[in-house]
Automatic annotation (TrEMBL):
Keyword ATP-binding in annotation: yes
Annotated positions binding ATP: G108, Q109, T110, G111, S112, G113, K114, T115
Gene name, Swiss-Prot/TrEMBL: Kif12
CDD domains (UniProt xref): KISc
Protein name as catalogued: Kinesin-like protein
Location in or out of the cell: Cytoplasm, Cytoskeleton
């Protein structure tokens, strides 16, 4: 993969944040850079699950005034189509058709717009389909994939799983979700055993699979997000040639990470608190793996992919032979300053991770 910095997206202030009087502390400078400037609140110095071990050198000693550079910056007024075209997503689809293992994931604090960036509004249904202008990276990629594969003799199928409380569950299999075993082999790496893979030939077909799985995915409401994802979800499109004797296949995997969160800020208790702890634990394992992968090859220690189910399933995307696109999603609110800085530092750290596709 190339060594360009991941793109970043800054969502608008919500109505609740505006009513509360939150200030906008994140601004795009118009040259693919983001500037964060505000007075950091006291007594909130806990390390973010995605925070690297070293601070970004561009951040001042006060830790509340920083400038970050990215391959692209999408501010509050950026359309979903512009995010698709400007993030490199179209090129990723072409690579998947060419046989590469491609992955895209959005990361950031809970409520920062990750699911919206990937899928668009959550209130999508057959009765009230979302307007085309708000469709996310996934639906636009499906359309691009089907258009470019037409007449090329390709077979397309999809699988959809979630990691909930460190259990891998199939979102497409009929019946109540049940835990599936995670295996490892030399040829496939880590993989989910017995997961259902469904073939599709149209945009309607893959969209229905996406909606069906998303309806079964665990989500809850808390103080920071009315539709908080309580699991990490991975939808993988498998691209293979129908020609006899054709070897290998390309994949396009979309990863919707559950957001990092502070239990004190979300007001979580009981089951929500258990979910939050598991989410943060897996995100911490992911951040640790990326910090180690960012080191020069000669100085890398063992990368502990086995520390969580999430890092096992992302092992090939992070350090294998795949091509990966990461989108950093942040809130502009002064209340989310600490989490926003941690996400942006993490993205800057991830820029030095390179693979050999």
């Amino acid at each position: 993969s190339d060594t360009s910095v991941p793109p970043a997206r800054v969502r608008p202030l919500t109505c609740a944040e505006t009513r509360r009087g939150d200030r906008r502390v994140v601004r795009s400078l118009g040259d693919s850079t983001v500037h964060v400037s505000a007075t950091a609140p006291r007594g909130r110095g806990r390390r973010h699950p995605l925070s690297p071990s070293r601070a970004c050198p561009q951040v001042s000693a006060a830790r509340h005034d920083a400038t970050f550079g990215f391959s692209a910056v999408f501010d509050a007024g950026t359309s979903q189509e512009a995010v698709f075209e400007g993030s490199g997503m179209r090129e990723l689809v072409e690579l998947a058709i060419g046989g590469f293992a491609c992955t895209v994931f959005a990361f950031g604090q809970t409520g920062s717009g990750k699911t919206y960036t990937l899928m668009g509004p959550l209130a999508q249904s057959e009765a009230q389909p979302a307007a085309p202008c708000v469709l996310g990276l996934m639906q636009r990629s499906f359309a691009c994939l089907l258009e470019q594969s037409r007449g090329a003799g390709l077979a397309l199928s999809a699988s959809y799983v979630e990691i909930y409380n460190e259990q891998v569950r199939d979102l497409l299999s009929p019946g109540p979700p049940c835990a599936l075993p995670l295996r490892w082999s030399k040829s496939r790496g880590f993989y989910v055993e017995n997961q259902l893979s469904v073939e599709f030939e149209s945009l309607e077909g893959i969209t229905e699979l996406l909606l069906e799985g998303s309806r079964r995915r665990r989500s809850s409401a808390h103080a920071l997000n009315k539709h908080s994802s309580r699991s990490h979800a991975l939808l993988t499109v498998h691209v293979r040639s129908r020609a006899r004797g054709a070897g290998g296949q390309g994949t396009l995997c979309f990863v919707d990470l559950a957001g990092s969160e502070r239990v004190k800020d979300t007001g979580s208790a009981g089951e929500l608190c258990v979910e939050a702890n598991n989410i943060n634990r897996s995100l911490l394992a992911l951040g640790h793996c990326i910090s180690l992968l960012a080191k020069p090859r000669g100085k890398r220690a063992h990368v502990p992919y086995r520390d969580s189910k999430l890092t096992r399933l992302l092992a090939r995307a992070l350090g294998g032979s795949g091509v990966t696109l990461m989108v950093a999603c942040v809130s502009p609110s002064s209340r989310c300053l600490s989490e926003t800085l941690s996400t942006l530092r993490y993205a800057s750290r991830a820029r030095s991770v390179t693979t050999r596709p």
